Amino acid sequence: MDSSSSSMAAAEGRPQATENLAVFWHEGMLAHDAGIGMFDTGGDPGFLDVLDKHPDNADRVRNMVSILCRGPIAPFLSWHFGSPADASDLLSFHTPEYIDELVQADASGGKKLYETTFMNPGSWGAALLAAGTTLSAARHILDGRGKVAYALVRPPGHHAHPDHADGYCFLNNAGLAVQLALDSGRTNVALVDIDAHYGNGTAEGFYQTDNVLAISLHMKHGSWDPSHSHLQSGSADLIGEGRGLGYNLNIPLPIGSGDAGYEYAMNELVVPAIDKFQPQFLVFVIGQDSSAFDPNGRQCLTMDGYRRIGQIMRSMANRHSDGQMLIVQEGGYHMTYSAYCLHATLEGVLSLEAPLLDDPIAYYPEDEKYTMKAVDVMKRCWRESIPFLEDI
Questions:
Q1: 3-state SS class at 67
Q2: Contact status, residue 329 vs residue 341, Cβ threshold 8 Å
Q3: Between the CA of residue 288 and those of 225, 306, 339, what are the distances in Å?
Q4: In the chain, which residues have pLDDT < 50?
Q5: pLDDT tens digits, residue range 173-188?
Q6: Could you say which DSSP state residue 255 is in?
Q7: DSSP code for 275
Q8: Which of 277, 299, 302, 305 would staple 290 via disulfide (CB 3.0–4.6 Å)?
């Protein structure tokens, strides 16, 4: 499956990247089927002729694979097979009791683990592949075989807590990769999550440590179930505990923040925090559900916004981690536009001189002023409450 053809790009006059981006994938992850129902509930009210596929369905990822294989970015990518994670890998982030629960749920034919999170036949194997494929991508970088790798995985992971499932997620793929980097000798790791929803599971896993800086930019959605597993609201005052105080940074952005609002938040909040932290390894968690057309988000990012965020992230990796950066896939539920936004994100990461692919549908106007005001307020709060950021 490994392939690359940068010489083809040169021959065709396309902008060239300095190196290929390694994509880690395994088609076995398509076996996870979360079923049908009223959007993500799995329920049938009885009066609808046509029910939704669950938002995390295999088709959304099939389009991501196909656009990377056949789109104009294809010459800049190399493809690599992932493999299932071992139980010992999972225990670096998750509790033995929780892993046992998942194994038993699979053995019994499936289980509803949360209101929107369904384990069905094939789900556990896909989850093990998602975790293992993410770890394979991380090892590719940590072992010196490449600078940038992208784990194209599902089911997603950033809502999965150490001890329970949440929000379509079984295993915390990005959290496992962060722990692997620490166990491999990296003294500190920064994670930046741009999925539309707060990466609450990842935050929980590192909430009391100061060697992981976890930054989440998400829509201001609050807690969607304060009585159960999504206890954290993603609010700006959740900044870590104990040794981790100040190392969990939430950036809840106003609904509809758009390209300019996100770029402002990246430059005013994320970049200064990363520059102060100076990570030895960078994990970039991406979700296209922040796009203008996603059914599960309201943030109005377009391809241009995703491309710019990719550029900013790569620039930070070049400054602090010798260009090394792991990219981990999370949400993104518009069947076609998610694939386009992924393409744009990776174009940005590759620092290509010009866009390879035009945006086919973006047309919404933006009003970024409200977002900029919210970012300025958060920046003042960080200066007052987080010692290592007092002079950003």
A1: helix
A2: no
A3: 23, 9, 8
A4: 2-14
A5: 999 999 999 999 999 9
A6: T
A7: H
A8: 299
CA 363 from centroid of its chain's CA atoms: 25
pLDDT, residue 362, reads: 87
Tell me which residue of 99, 133, 137, 111 sits closest to 42, measured CA to CA.
111
Q: What is the pTM of this model?
A: 0.94
| Distance from C-alpha of 140 to C-alpha of 63, rounded to nearest angstrom | 25
Q: Count the residues in the chain.
A: 392
Q: Is the CB of residue 154 less than 8 Å from the CB of residue 32?
A: yes
Q: 177 with 326: CB under 8 angstroms?
A: yes
Radius of gyration of the chain (CA): 20
Predicted local confidence at residue 18, as pLDDT:
60
Residue 285 has which token pair?
A: 């968690």
Q: Distance between CA 192 and CA 243 in Å, rounded?
A: 20
- For residue 332, the 8-state DSSP code is -
Q: Where are the beta strands (DSSP E) in the chain?
A: 21-25, 36-37, 52-53, 77-81, 111-114, 117-119, 148-151, 189-193, 212-219, 248-253, 281-286, 325-329
CA-based nearest residue to 116, from 154, 155, 168, 165: 168
Cβ 53 vs Cβ 101: under 8 Å: no
Cα 116 to Cα 112, 179, 305, distances in angstroms: 8, 27, 29
Q: HSE, CB side, 13 Å, CA atoms: give it for residue 165.
A: 25
> What mean pLDDT, rounded, does the chain reach?
93
